């Protein structure tokens, strides 16, 4: 039983393998947060102290107890306007204009399995998943909030969401609906958040939480390159391998906000959910709003420990079961090889060369449909351009399959070009304010995915292509931020719903396509990694990590991504040198080692490779096949601390049973007469002996973990090392 309720004290205890989450409905019906952290025994309510803090008032019924204030008590889901002056979790506007929400405990239920989350991605339940639903009520405005807590003991994750129901007789307008609120009574936290830009996603930045409010989020209609919906609160002294770390990951791909407030007494409130800016949702009597889920986790074993919880959670409970065990194909993508300049013969030449090197799938990127010879036209017209290809898609696909390769295609479903038949036929299908020209980006507009007719059109158009030719893979792109988020299908007072309805439309389309093509791999993409989140990972087992394919830049991008997401989800390819984005030259073996820590593939013109390079690629692919299971399913460790000023980046994979390990190190700066690169390994069995592949040297796990390993010096830019240890 991972969820327990004490009838006497009204304490709820949620336990995972290593953690305890505790809360209590007090005598006033306020649902108090007691504790989240390393497993303890017994009740943690002794941690709550009360004192009369000036300017923190008391609920009317507690007027005799001046120490009892909603402003200072730790709460599970904060209301608004009734005396808690910290961040609200929910904000409503009643018919009479009142904006107050005062939530009190009504009842609870404990069930096996999951509550239905209609239209949204969710964590897939395990055998032992239990759900606690606690209902809070504001009987004045007629509002119920059902807080759902789903406990995943094996992954050390607690999944929260809220269902907000209008139980009154008048319509209610919802202006904020967070997925979760966690109040940490004590702690001195740093926050790690993941900012970025196109071509440099998920850059970790570690900051001391200031007094007041710090917030990160996206209003771009997508989870964004600029701010990932994942934050970590960690002890100020936490390192990669030690210290308290809390993660908060929103399972959502649209606008989001992560807020942290350190209050007058040093307590920290964390609130995560859909971004309230621009959001408003009308709830008629009886209607409900379901928030996305948020994945919470705690580790005492530092940032690496926390990352491993998320890796397990995503690999087992987010990625579709179809792709949890199977190795994804090694692919070659046509984008950096040809951009828009190709015909079928050229693509077939790529295919033949790729097949010779051991590549398993060919992906035809942008440019195969409509009038699309550059990025100014054609989006929305998902009709094969046979005159450009010189044949039908079926003929091309058949010939690729005859070579023994699988075949994939690029789509950008949610977009439309002004210069397209779709836009000419349905100008009202694009998001745009009335009487205003919408913002263009990459010369394209955004389709109104909140409309069912748009979703239906896209489903039919994509099925027509996927039914006509054999296609095993789709790259699903999304190449601009959403502005002018106005739907011509909704009335004026419901425009605040468009951004979220947009995401529901996208999720519905993904859901329907996967129901029809259960073996299709959909790789998410958004100008690289602009929509890399747990919501998309529910549908897409892999997401293109960045349009920056420079291996040295990728070290940073993939490291930043690894804090929350497993390498098995990171789309990563070997591209040409000098690199197309940076002009940097990087040795082929280094490019291979970096791309190997991902889904692995190639993004270059094989016709331009020398014979020696082709031979090296054959070996890379053979090595990848050997290590693929360890990389995809092993425990991942960052071996270098963040921004430690060293000239190397190192990381490793250790089999959970301690049987083998793969260690990678890339020199980011070569120095004359420099120190030997050095790391301490992780995840080995201390008293087991390991042989280093290619040598007859053996080491104990203890020696490699406590004494470490030093590498010989190498000269030349960006040298890499890869070591494989096997237990003997
Ligand atoms: C985006 C993707 C690229 C490529 C282009 C095609 O930028 O991230 O990989 O598919 O679109 O236009």
Describe this structure in words.
The chain has 728 residues and is α+β, with helices and mostly antiparallel strands. The protein has 3 domains: 3-318, alpha-galactosidase from lactobacil brevis (Beta-galactosidase, Chain A, domain 5, Distorted Sandwich), CATH 2.70.98; 322-633, TIM Barrel, CATH 3.20.20; 638-727, Sandwich (Immunoglobulin-like). The protein contains 13 helices and 39 strands. The strands form 7 sheets. Strands 6, 7, 8, 9, 11, 12, 14, 15, 19 and 20 form a 10-stranded antiparallel beta sheet that branches. Helix 7 (452-468) runs parallel beside helix 8, helix 10 (551-562) packs parallel to helix 11 (588-596) and helix 11 runs parallel beside helix 12 (611-633). Bound molecules: alpha-D-galactopyranose (GLA). Alpha-D-galactopyranose (GLA) is lined by residues 335, 365-366, 375, 410, 477, 479, 525, 527-528, 544, 547.
Radius of gyration: 27 Å
Shape summary: globular
Amount of helix: 10-25%
Q: What hetero molecules are bound to the protein chains?
A: alpha-D-galactopyranose
What is the CATH C level class of the largest domain, in words? Answer: Mainly Beta
Spans of 5+ residues with little confidence (pLDDT < 50)? none
The termini sit apart by 39 Å
Question: What's the average pLDDT?
Answer: 97
Strand tally: 39
- The computed structural class is alpha+beta
Whole-number count of domains: 3
Assign the CATH superfamily of the largest domain: alpha-galactosidase from lactobacil brevis
State the helix count. Answer: 13
What name does the CATH topology of the largest domain carry?
A: Beta-galactosidase, Chain A, domain 5
Strand residue percentage: 25-35%
Main beta-sheet strand count, sense and barrel state: 10 strands, antiparallel
Give the name of the CATH architecture of the largest domain: Distorted Sandwich
